[in-house]
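Notebook, bench 3.
Goal today: get a predicted structure for Phosphomannomutase from Streptomyces roseus so we can plan the truncation constructs. The sequence was checked against the plasmid map this morning, with no discrepancies at the termini. Length recorded as 456 residues. Pasting the sequence as submitted so the record is complete.
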Amino acid sequence: MAADLSNIVKAYDVRGVVPDEWDESLAELFGAAFVEVTGATAIVVGHDMRPSSPALSGAFARGAAARGVDVTLIGLCSTDQLYYASGTLDLPGAMFTASHNPARYNGIKLCRAGAAPVGQDTGLAAVRELVEQWSEQGAPAVAGGTAPGTITEQDTLAGYAEHLKALVDLRAIRPLKVVVDAGNGMGGHTVPTVFEGLPLELVPMYFELDGTFPNHEANPLDPKNIVDLQARVKAEGADLGLAFDGDADRCFVVDERGEGVSPSAVTALVAARELARNGGTGTVIHNLITSWSVPEVVREHGGTPVRTRVGHSFIKEEMARSGAIFGGEHSAHYYFKDFWNADTGMLAALHVLAALGGQDGPLSELVSSYDRYAGSGEINSTVADQADRLAAVKAAYGSAEGITLDELDGLTATSADWWFNLRASNTEPLLRLNVEARDPLTLAKVRDEVLSLVRA
């Protein structure tokens, strides 16, 4: 019987418990299948700090090299550092990480040359199919007796840091004191090199690379995971705090008061800066649960906002299709045309530092013009029947006067004073609710009305 990998091959990546759900033997098959599907003659492979990452990435490299493909190992790296390597070397890439998942998990994020995404519809389903076929007997021999490829090592960290700093000029900013919580993830590897030579006083937190995450889960979108950072920013009298997730492709910002800055406000701020860099024109992508502030700011700065579904594959596809200069998601993923349309939280962080250091006021004051509405954040509800509850909410709001509905991604209801989006999770029996309103009282009213229907 061929293996069933449906539990570990997700919409955008491979992710599962090691060694229960996958191991080095499967990683080797993934390497062979990846080069078969992409037709690559050379690839680049990197990994995070998880205990299982070096062995899994090594096995993947062996599987690829056995089919005649030359492999460049870049070793420890952040996910956006792997995208940099894929972009600058013009090679398909594989990043071994499970992002913010617990230590026993690991995974693979795959991309084609130039950091182009690989998801279910762009090669991942075909990779899974081959691995399942080969899981019994192993990968077949390569036709024509092809010689194995080479496996070499290359350090890309310095090049990655220089590329980012060439895109945002921080040399003339006022000195800033910055607390960075790396969560024992890859930010501890990349931040010191990226910040080197900049007028920044760095206060590091949890920079020791430790894939067991001894201090807190490396997921800064969960409020409990930034409590330490918030306290340290205030204790240090710092100008701001930055928190990175496990593979350091997402970045969350805390202001000088220790208050979290909405990723929508960061999206709007960076969009304004990127539009200015591009002569006041350009397309900016935002997903449908970002704040009303984002398209407003984009238009105010001469740009064209484009709304998409939630998820990095949709953002990246629309970036490529429209030639967009920037894209942002409320999950703190930020995408840049100048970074091969890939997401890099580090580049977004440099934009925030440049904006703050280029004026005299505090960060809270700077971002207030980009944070105009009351937002609920994402509220999850466990439900037995997602479709039934969505239908109930649609029925309740569908006939109401002055409310428009759309189903681009779940259900979005919009009125003059508020909007909400209700989406089903792809992997869990959850409905995810996001609400925004012009004032906190209206927000609370709409939130409670929708939740009463969802949880009925």
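The first strand starts at residue 14 and ends at 17. The radius of gyration is 22 Å.
Flagging this for group meeting.
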